[in-house]
Design a protein that fits this description.
By secondary structure, this protein is an alpha+beta fold. It is built from 23 helices and 20 strands. It has a four-stranded antiparallel β-sheet with strand order 1-8-3-6. The relative contact order is 0.08.
């Protein structure tokens, strides 16, 4: 029996008995430098698992400078597709002296028959392989199946319904009898909701008679969900809409009676991890000191989400909503309420796109209603900046913050700035346009930001020359692949933000600007571009999965350095040598997707790219 490490996919999909069959059935073969291991068109007879050395994958139909399309090193395997397809599409050549384990075709096909998950691995897209990696990382036996896949139907409680003419006295008695905190009111135009707090305020603060009807105090603008939605989505919605209850409606039946209610306390109890109480602590914070305490726990929440194998998109959604609520609460504590409807606090950059998990530098600005007089606004914005620093959001090195008067202005002033930036088209102006394009309201009146962003689209979306200048930045950084298509492996690591994340984010941002797409999230922009026909659905999905992979690899390194308290190392660098074989394979495939995307951007916006 040959002793070989079979702990990584696809061998992890075999039972121990299956792995023993592999160890008993493989041989070790030597290949000299430049030796052809598998030729184009040759029938596949073996699956090759590299023990030592490097192997190049060559497309012989391409010119010599471009024929190398893949590169394999120790722990990688190749040849399986040649067996499944009947012959090899590409040539595989030893780049140096190589030792490879050889699994015979008969054994491989038998394992495929006996272990469907093993067979499926070789037919999967980048999206499927990335999901395997996520589940593989889940710790303590808790995976997406047990955590992310919980549905609303598993956590909702039966609705407590009463007629619109029910009196406050009757409602109080019913709530007391049912030990409930809220009830639904059956109105003429649909259901409304009344909570214990609503009843208390009606009786004490509004001095209503206890015989008053619920129709007069019910809230008829409800946040609704479907029973088949993920419970984790509900937690994100509750945080974003600042509510503690959502109403469950049957899919596609808006006028049908509600079938359930989900309360925040139920959701948090369901997840049964103290980390998830961070959302509740933020909501319950009644002072800046309490908000500071809750905000300091967000790294703990990030670690818990990653440890449980939560899909990155949901984790980003929750953290973006949570960061927005922290900033909104701070705004509420510091800013006089009379200015709330006449101003809008916006966040930009990765925070505006909802793509930052760990807290990052502040990128924020303030929009004021035209004609608003706000004495002392500069001093209050400086205090807000200082408070956000205390909450864990470091100052922006570029001074893009509300404490900088250049990032505060009325709607008219912002429109003038956008017109000026669009006309200048220099690097600084294009950067500011990109920042504004990603802006998202977190406090105050979001309608003010909507007006400003609408001006941005009107000013820029049809300007072909501006779009060309704007898109060029996506090609600014080289893709960290060698001339031969393999991963670069510098000892200090590759900059995954410059080489992978930024080209996707900015390229998609450019296309969204051109098409007038309003969402700020890159993933939502990709979906919109696919729906619009601007991107093929397959391309949009691959770009989304590549972006998620880059972000997760970057986050993994950031969390490790957070634990080690290593401040000197760049948080954006991923050391290839420290990745597993599957991670290297995914990273290489994802970077080739980026390379192809940059080529398409070059063609669409008439840029020089090689």
């Amino acid at each position: 029996m040959i002793d070989v490490d079979l702990s990584q996919p696809p061998f992890s999909f075999l039972s121990e008995e299956g792995r023993d069959r592999v160890r008993n059935g493989i041989d070790l073969a030597y290949f000299d430098r430049d030796e052809i291991i598998l030729e184009t068109g040759q029938p596949g007879e073996y699956v090759f698992l590299i023990h030592k050395g490097e192997v190049a994958e060559l497309d012989t139909t391409l010119p010599g400078a471009r024929e190398r399309i893949g590169h394999y090193t120790a722990g990688d395997l190749f040849g399986a597709i040649s067996i499944l397809n009947g012959k090899s599409r590409y040539r595989f050549r030893a780049e140096q002296e190589c030792l490879c384990y050889l699994m015979p075709k008969a054994l491989f096909l038998q394992l495929c028959d006996d272990y469907p998950a093993f067979a499926e691995f070789f037919r999967q897209t980048l999206a499927h392989k990335a999901r395997l990696l996520t589940e593989q990382r889940a710790e303590g036996g808790v995976t997406m199946a047990g955590f992310m896949l919980a549905k609303v139907s598993e956590c909702m409680r039966p609705p407590l319904c009463m007629g619109a003419e029910t009196t406050i006295a009757e409602a109080v008695a019913r709530l007391h009898e049912s030990h409930a905190d809220s009830l639904l009111v059956e109105g003429d135009s649909g259901a409304g909701m009344v909570t214990k707090t609503d009843l208390l305020e009606a009786l004490v603060l509004q001095e209503r008679d206890k015989e008053s009807s619920l129709q007069q105090i019910a809230h008829f603008e409800l946040v609704t969900v479907r029973p088949d939605q993920y419970l984790f989505e509900v937690l994100v919605m509750m945080t974003r809409f600042k509510v503690e209850r959502v109403v469950v409606m049957e899919r596609g039946e808006e006028q049908a009676p509600p079938i359930g209610v989900v309360e925040l306390t139920d959701v948090l109890s369901y997840f049964s991890s103290r980390s998830y109480v961070v959302s509740l602590q933020v909501e319950q914070a009644d002072s800046l000191e309490a908000l500071f305490r809750a905000s300091r726990r967000t790294p703990e929440l990030v670690k818990a989400l990653m440890a449980q194998g939560v899909k990155l998109r949901f984790a980003m959604g929750l953290l973006a909503a949570l960061n927005g609520r922290i900033m909104s609460k701070a705004w509420g504590f510091l800013i006089d309420e009379r200015y709330h409807q006449q101003s809008c606090l916006m966040v930009m950059g990765s925070e505006g796109r909802g793509e930052q998990i760990l807290k990052t530098d502040q990128d924020n600005g303030l929009i004021l209603a035209d004609g608003l007089e706000w004495p002392g606004v500069e001093a209050q914005m400086q205090r807000l900046t200082d408070t956000l620093i205390e909450l864990g959001y470091p100052p922006c090195p570029g001074n893009i913050m509300v404490s900088n008067p250049e990032w505060v202005g009325s709607v008219s002033q912002w429109r003038e700035r956008i017109a000026r930036w669009a006309a200048k088209r220099d690097g600084d102006s294009l950067m500011k346009l990109a920042i504004m394009l990603d802006s998202h309201a977190v406090a105050g009146n979001p309608a003010l930001l909507d007006r400003v962003r609408q001006s941005l689209f009107e000013q820029c979306s049809r300007d072909e020359l501006l779009l060309s200048y704007f898109a060029r930045t996506a090609l600014r950084f080289s893709t960290p692949l060698t001339l031969f298509g393999s991963l670069k492996k510098p000892q200090h690591g590759i900059d995954i933000k410059k080489g992978g994340i930024f080209p996707i984010v900015h390229g998609v941002r450019t296309m969204a600007l051109e098409r007038g797409i309003k969402p700020t999230s890159t993933l939502e922009r990709l979906e919109a571009l696919a729906a619009d026909g601007r991107l093929e659905e397959r391309v949009a999905e691959n770009l989304a999965e590549a972006l998620s992979l880059f972000t997760e690899l970057r986050l993994k390194q950031q969390l490790e350095r957070l634990d080690e308290d290593v401040a000197s190392k760049s948080p954006d660098r991923v050391v290839v040598q420290q990745l597993s074989s599957l991670e290297r394979d995914l990273l290489r495939e994802a970077l080739h997707i980026v390379k192809d995307f940059k080529q398409s951007l070059s063609q669409r916006y008439h840029l020089e790219y090689s």
